[in-house]
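Please check this today:
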Amino acid sequence: MMLEPSIDDLQTKIKSKYTLVTIAAKRARQIRETEKVLVDNPKSNRYVGLALEEIMAEKLFVKEDSK
């Protein structure tokens, strides 16, 4: 089973694998509860896949702290 989008592609959007997994899991739970997806014509039929597609489409991102 291939993960689509790939981890390498996803890490161009969010550098930390830990942050990527955390955001995707949290968003997957939100999608499950609301059934609202931020991308048009998603390819995945699984909640985590939908969350990852949203990250690739730059609908989800990490706000950097300004120091």
About this structure: The two ends are 41 Å apart (CA to CA). The first helix runs from residue 7 to 10. DSSP finds three helices and no strands in the chain.
